[in-house]
Design goal:
The chain contains 5 helices and 4 strands, in the order ααββααββα. It has helices spanning 7-18, 27-38, 53-72, 81-89, 106-119, and strands at 42-45, 48-51, 93-95, 102-104. A two-stranded antiparallel sheet has the order 1-2. A two-stranded antiparallel ribbon has the order 3-4. The model has no long low-confidence stretch (mean pLDDT 90).
Length: 123
């Protein structure tokens, strides 16, 4: 992600994704809408928020990172099928030889270490 988003802004994106038509947005969405719109993560037409392609990609990337971490820490059932498919295609996870679920590959461990080092790096 080239734009550093806070946890609150990422949560606002996730809430916009789940927002139903006619539902009122939360305080979290209202608080972050101006910045997210300025960075082109969301649009607002007629008072209704919608994710842009950039917003959808950012959420999917976050879900992939969270899914990779869930597999690495053996959290059962914490990975969505579309995320598992993507991570498998990229060679970051592999199906277990015994039982159900996935294991992180060497490439996946390297990627996770790289992600963690970038997140913990002071700006």
């Amino acid at each position: 992600m080239e734009d550093k988003l806070t946890k609150d802004e990422l949560e606002a994106l996730a809430q916009i994704r789940r927002l139903r038509k006619g539902e009122r947005e939360s305080a979290c969405v209202s608080r972050n809408a101006k910045r997210l719109a300025g960075l082109k993560y969301i649009t607002c037409k007629g008072g209704v928020f919608a994710l842009t392609e950039k917003g959808l990609q950012t959420l999917f990337l976050k879900r992939c990172i969270d899914g990779l971490r869930a597999v690495a820490y053996s959290v059962p059932g914490a990975i969505d099928p579309d995320v598992a498919t993507f991570l498998s295609r990229k060679g970051l996870i592999a199906p277990r030889t015994v039982g159900e679920g996935f294991d992180v590959t060497e490439r996946g461990r390297e990627s996770l270490a790289d992600i963690d080092s970038r997140e913990n790096k002071p700006t």
